[in-house]
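User: Hi! I'm working on a homework problem where we have to compare a predicted structure to a textbook description. Could you give me the structure for the chain below?
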Amino acid sequence: MRKEHRLPFAVITLVLLAQAAATATGVVVKVAGNGYWEDTVWPFMDYPMYSAAHGPPVQASSATLAAELPDGAEIDITPDFMGLAFFAWRYHLVERLVADETQLDARYAHLAEGIVADREEALRRVVDQVVRATGARPVALRVDRRTHTVTDDGIEVTDMATRVAVTVEATP
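Assistant: Happy to help. Predicted structure tokens:
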């Protein structure tokens, strides 16, 4: 072995031996985390992919949009049905349909008119597409929303479907 390779070889060997010893003996030390103490197998066993979740939970939401026809039938208004990419469908249609201008704080009251106009435009687009596809004008639109939370046990639905109904006026 060359002289310049001895130090890296010794360090790598020491690290591997320490890891093997820690694994065999189960040496546990307390390590300060983000405002908590956790048990960690010394020196290298605290891999993030095996760690418990800490801090605020990771959440995501999903939404479905459906139209009720006069005969009681219901059709799903998907991004493909509308001819839109998913994010355009979600943020230009679904989120605008459920936006609530009454929840604005006084500093943002001037935005209420825009929210109402956006909702009316989204409603018109959906109604026009349903009429083109089915020949019938929908009587109501429904948005079902779910909140999914990532926990140590997997993904759980923590907020079941909140139904937001939009009644479609009878006049075209």
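For your comparison, note the following. The two ends are 87 Å apart (CA to CA). The chain has a mean pLDDT of 80. Good luck with the assignment!
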